[in-house]
Write a structure and sequence with these properties.
Helix content: 25-40%
Largest sheet: 8 strands, mixed
CATH class of the largest domain: Alpha Beta
Number of domains: 3
Number of strands: 14
Shape: globular
């Protein structure tokens, strides 16, 4: 026997080995193949309910070619697939469930390595969380950004441009017929968000973590190079199995520093903060919001990509991709960090170059001196909150205004355009009951709409505060992830319409400017919030989900499993001894 993990299932000359081998031979795999090379699982999140992931079957086929060509045995298996557009109230509610699906599939099956194929927002972090906990050699293959749709001569970002046009429609500057024309033009085909939304951000961050092949994050989904990258990923998965290079050797503090540095340099989405915190928690790395702020303060923003810039991810790829960004960052990147190539990151960057300075700025002349995301604290967010300052209005980064409070997203829909709403351009829109427990699942509701009558007067941005998330494609002066959330008794629960709220991004402050004793009094008066779920997965979620500043993972999933199934466990193994 070779000592591979799969040998525990297939190598035994007993009844258990007989049945395990026969189960796979029934699929047409020969005994010689099964015992000759490592077994590589292909974890596929393909689904017709998730348009971003429609092409993943084709990528899985290319991965299989690579595995077979390298002498391995590919076995594909499905898991839950998460799509932000159709899943309600949010795919984030099910990220942890998918991570459990991935983790237990990896652990319980005879796999020597696994290729994680994902695309839409929450699939990739869920897969990586599960793989980090299972700690079997793993490599990530993302689906790639879609090609842009074109509307009246303009290439469209999948979400960023839509938010602009929605405001134009609500303000009366775009007709319903024109908006329908936009809808007809907006079908982009295969691939995930083509601006620096959450999916593109996570693809970039995972490459910087060292968990995918260098240069693969930004390859457009329809590009034949994406298929070749899939085949190369399959080849590398076989080597990972032979080398035993587990995620625990890659997902180290230096890798997370590189991921955060990349996040800040590309103006990536705020969702990545929650996901990185969760992945770090699985990997046993002590990562906090403070580290994000420290790295943001030292990292210039270089990528001129929507929503914080002008271009799309396809242009970023043509300009050199993530390797070029990392190369430009120079000594801000930990080149000694291990990657799935089996070599340190610096080797992947040695030949990287920037091909277009209009897309990737130089470190000497960055788009912004600091990274795209800032961490805030104060009496309204004792455990932290986030703002994507790269997509905010500079004049609003220091602001004081009176709160206009909405209890939930339904009240927003009912009241935001009510002409009787007492609001002006200096008001601060506040949404609560949209966090991990209150949403539930922390939906992407944070980009509250500007009231119609203010849009009609030319107001394009206001300060907005919530315990929600927002799409990585969104923009505006939006404070998110307020922790603790209102549903668990955070100060956000005590805010009343008319209360003064002070925001100062430079000073890292977000304050409810009323006496602390009054905040405490109101919270006692209000009492605990009612749970949204009382049974099933929802009840489990509410009981165990952590707050945004801890990654919204389940408390019982932090860290890697200490279990090591030295044999294919089950009753069958016990029966064999009596035969």
């Amino acid at each position: 026997m070779s000592g591979r993990r799969s040998d525990r299932w297939f190598g035994g000359q007993d009844l258990a080995g007989f049945i395990h081998r026969s189960s796979v031979r029934a699929e047409g795999v020969s005994r010689d193949s099964l015992l000759g090379g490592p077994v590589v699982g292909i974890c596929n999140s393909w689904s017709e309910l998730v348009h971003c992931n429609l092409h993943l079957r084709g990528l899985a086929a290319a991965v299989k070619r690579g595995v077979v060509g390298a002498g391995g045995v590919p076995l594909e298996f499905p898991t839950i697939s998460l799509g932000e557009n159709l899943m309600k109230p949010t795919a984030m509610l099910y990220r942890n469930l998918m991570s459990m699906d991935v983790e237990e599939s990896i652990r319980s099956y005879p796999l020597d390595a696994v290729v994680l194929i994902g695309g839409c927002d929450k699939t990739v972090p869920a897969q990586l969380m599960g793989a980090a906990s299972a700690n079997v050699p793993a490599i990530v293959l993302t689906g790639g950004p879609s090609r842009p749709a074109v509307f009246r001569g303009r290439e469209l970002g999948a979400g960023t441009d839509l938010w602009h046009y929605v405001d134009e429609l609500r303000a009366g500057r775009m007709t319903e017929a024109e908006f329908q024309e936009l809808e007809r033009a907006s079908s982009t085909g295969i691939g995930h968000c083509n601006e620096m939304g959450t999916a593109s951000t996570m693809a970039a961050v995972v490459e910087a973590l060292g968990m995918s092949l260098p240069g693969t994050a930004t390859i457009p989904a329809p590009d034949p190079a994406r298929v070749r990258a899939a085949e190369a990923t399959g080849v590398r998965a076989v080597a990972l199995a032979e080398e035993g290079l587990a995620p625990s050797r890659i997902l180290r503090p230096e890798a997370f520093d590189n991921a955060i540095t990349t996040l800040m340099a590309i103006g990536g989405g705020t969702n990545a903060v929650v996901h990185l915190l969760a992945i770090a928690g699985r990997a046993g790395v002590d990562l906090t919001l403070d580290r994000f702020h420290e790295i943001s303060r030292r990292t210039p923003m270089l990528a001129n990509v929507r929503p914080a810039g002008e271009h799309l991810v396809e242009q970023l790829h043509q300009a050199g991709g993530i390797p070029a960004v990392l190369h430009e960052l120079g000594d801000l990147v930990r080149g000694d960090a291990m990657t799935v190539t089996g070599r340190p990151l610096r080797e992947a960057l040695s030949s990287a170059r920037v091909h277009d300075r209009s897309v990737i700025a130089s470190r000497a002349a960055p788009l912004q001196q600091e990274g795209g995301i800032a961490v805030l604290r104060g009496s309204l967010a004792p455990d932290g909150a986030l703002i994507k300052r790269s997509a905010a209005s500079p004049e609003l980064l220091r602001h004081r205004g009176r709160a206009v409070v909405f209890e939930d997203v339904h009240e927003v829909a009912d009241r935001i355009d009510d002409p009787r709403l007492d609001i002006d351009r200096d008001s601060v829109l506040v949404l609560r009951n949209a966090g991990p427990r209150g949403g539930p699942g922390m939906p992407e509701w944070g980009q509250l709409p500007i009231p119609k009558r203010l849009l009609e007067r030319g107001v394009t941005d206001m300060v907005r505060v919530s315990d929600a998330r927002m799409s990585g494609t969104a923009f505006g002066t939006v404070v998110l992830h307020v922790a603790p959330e209102s549903a668990v008794g955070g100060p956000l629960r005590a805010v009343r319409t008319g209360d003064p709220i002070a925001l100062d991004v430079e000073e890292q402050r977000l304050d409810l400017d009323i006496p602390a004793a009054e905040i405490d009094r109101r919270l006692v008066e209000l009492g605990p919030a009612e749970p949204v779920f009382r049974r099933g997965y929802g009840a489990l979620y509410l009981e165990h989900v952590l707050q945004a500043n801890e990654g919204c993972d389940f408390d019982f999933l932090r860290g890697r499993s200490e279990e090591d199934a030295t044999e294919p466990l089950g009753l069958l193994s016990g029966w064999v001894g009596g035969w």
